[in-house]
Amino acid sequence: MPNRQNFKSKLTHKVFGTIAEISDGQNLETYVIGGFVRDLLLDRKRENYDIDIVTVGSGISLARDVASAINPKLNVSVFKNFGTAMFKFDNIDFEFVGARKESYRSDSRKPIVEDGTLEDDQKRRDFTINALALSLNKDRFGELLDPFGGLDDLANKIIRTPLEPGITFSDDPLRMMRAIRFATQLEFIIEDKTLEAITEQAERIKIVSMERVMDELNKIILSSKPSVGFKLLDKTGLLPIIFPEFVKLKGREIKQGISHKDNFYHTLEVLDRICPNTDNLWLRWSAILHDIAKPATKRFVEGQGWTFHAHNFIGSKMIPGLFKRLKLPLNEKMKFVQKMVLLHMRPIVLSEEEVSDSAVRRLLFDAGDDIEDLMTLCEADITSKNADKVKRYMHNFRIVRQKLQDLEERDAIRNFQPPVSGEIIMETFGLSPSREVGMLKAAIKDAILDGLIHNNYEEAYNYMIEKAKEMGLSPVK
């Protein structure tokens, strides 16, 4: 972390120079502030980012003047109600706002906004590390303004609010989610007083829209170790409010000296284990939800111990309701998660038994193009503390993967359609759509998956004739 208080050498983008020229010409105090400054001082690389510019004056007017100086044809989007304007240049969003101070009503996180000073603007920021500002005026270009010790908090890896945290979180409860998100993403610690305030204000999260809450939760899920965030959400009491179904996984029950694993912590381990192998948000959601029906399916059976029969099937049925309540997309992304939850036991069962070609063909047929994601999920699901057991599972998974590859190359099973269609069946036997047509189609599909015939038209047609004969059907002349 640099210990000097001027960071001129870091402000290299040419737009900053243009802002400096125009601000000085109009006698405006102007600063770059917020997340861009934080990440600049952390040397944190981000592929997509936006840059917040605050000026003691009209942000809209300044945005228009800067955009015009860069390129008169540059489009400026103006949001008069918020006093902001933005333009995109070099694939970066530059957002301009006039310095302001805010006050809040208890029933809303929408502030009452008034013009203010830079200090007022810094006070309204969520955390000290996001209140750091660098001057863009020429005589002070790159000078750091840090009234709340944000630079020290960056160095010490601390999340802390500029003002009294209880007020900060009561005013805008989404900041509680953001605190946990930053702690997870940056691998920082939330300062004790700030963490206590989140716990005290947890109920206030209910006034925030689920869409905004999920936006923050998804960023936690996409971090390198999401369990950190989930444990903080649980510790502060936010998780039972926003995602009670997940909290139900917690705990171990003992009967006749037999206990089951704590599925809450098991799930978090699966989630952390899958992260190095995928940045697919919906595969990570599949890890979160793969055992979601275990509380509903838990039974103690004499002589067997604890069972969770059909938890994969019940879990897949729960997904649409969960996605709807959590305001997650009710489209192919939801269907992908459903499929992963439904099928997640299949490769594990294969890895416990002798791997037959037929079982592998059926897995490949059911998983289709998502087979690699399914195998990635299942490998992450092996969290046993028994090293020999894990070694055996992983060895068998390698066998399953090899068989998947071999059978796909040989039989083209993935996403296949039986080579004899329903139309051909009806035409051959003079049938209209009926149960018999469905039975013959299913018989052909099963014969291919079981390896009785190859996936080609001639063998499938001949097999159809034989099966039809058994059903008392004859080809029409």
Automatic annotation (TrEMBL):
Positions of the tRNA nucleotidyltransferase/poly(A) polymerase RNA and SrmB- binding domain: 188-246
Domain of life: Bacteria
Sorted UniProt keywords: ATP-binding, Magnesium, Metal-binding, Nucleotide-binding, Nucleotidyltransferase, RNA repair, RNA-binding, Transferase, tRNA processing
Gene Ontology biological process terms from the UniProt entry: RNA repair; tRNA processing
Residue ranges of domain HD in the record: 264-362
UniProt GO MF annotations: ATP binding; metal ion binding; nucleotidyltransferase activity; RNA binding
Pfam family, one: PolyA_pol
Cofactor requirements of the protein: Mg(2+)
Poly A polymerase head domain residues: 30-160
Cross-referenced InterPro entries: HD/PDEase_dom, HD_domain, NT_sf, PolA_pol_head_dom, PolyA_RNA-bd, tRNA_CCA-adding_enzyme
Homology family: Belongs to the tRNA nucleotidyltransferase/poly(A) polymerase family.
PANTHER family: MULTIFUNCTIONAL CCA PROTEIN
Protein name in the entry: tRNA nucleotidyltransferase
Organism: Prolixibacter bellariivorans
Lineage, opening ranks: Bacteria, Pseudomonadati, Bacteroidota, Bacteroidia, Marinilabiliales
